[in-house]
């Protein structure tokens, strides 16, 4: 298992949960609510706090510096990813606040924004990381 595998595994599991979240947001938007739907939105809130936020922290403190060390050309990519993290932290805050005394409109709006940002962010990391590392390995030591 390489240091990257752990990040890749998190990305895969979060993408699966995002597909479920997207379905739930669409259901709520159409007014087809189920008794457990709020519980599932709350569960995603726990995933944010217990998985995604620690994942971001580990990337910021471990993966990104490691990547830049291996391939200095990755600096721009890392800056871009850090900017995404900043936007996402704001989006998480809004989503978590909307869970409180459930406000459906706020939950749908903040959920959709967060979903799009997070999907794009994971896609960018998944697409760029293998290539940036491959280029780093080709360089003479
Ligand atoms: Fe990531
Ligand atoms: Fe990230």
CATH class category: Mainly Alpha
The CATH topology is Four Helix Bundle (Hemerythrin (Met), subunit A)
Helix content range: over 70%
User: How many β strands by DSSP?
Assistant: 0
Please state the CA-atom Rg, rounded to the nearest Å.
17 Å
Instruction: Count every helix, treating DSSP H or I runs of 4 or more residues as helices.
Output: 4
Largest sheet: none
**Structural class of the helix and strand makeup?**
mainly alpha
CATH superfamily: nmb1532 protein domain like
Strand content is under 5%
The sequence of SSEs as H and E is HHHH
Distance between the termini: 23 Å
Structural shape: elongated
Overall pLDDT: 92
Number of domains: 1
Bound molecules: fe (ii) ion
Would you identify the regions where 5 or more consecutive residues have pLDDT less than 50? Answer: none
């Amino acid at each position: 298992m390489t240091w990257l595998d752990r990040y890749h595994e998190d990305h895969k599991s979060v993408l699966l949960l995002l597909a479920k979240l997207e379905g739930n947001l669409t259901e709520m938007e159409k007014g087809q609510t189920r008794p457990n739907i709020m519980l599932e939105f709350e569960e995603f809130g726990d995933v944010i706090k217990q998985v995604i936020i620690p994942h971001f922290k580990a990337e910021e403190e471990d993966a990104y510096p490691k990547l830049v060390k291996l391939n200095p050309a990755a600096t721009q990519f890392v800056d871009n990813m850090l900017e995404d993290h900043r936007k996402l932290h704001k989006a998480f805050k809004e989503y978590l606040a909307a869970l409180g005394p459930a406000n459906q409109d706020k939950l749908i709006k903040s959920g959709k924004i967060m979903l799009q940002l997070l999907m794009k962010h994971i896609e960018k990391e998944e697409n760029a990381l293998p290539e940036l590392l491959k280029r780093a390995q080709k360089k003479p030591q």
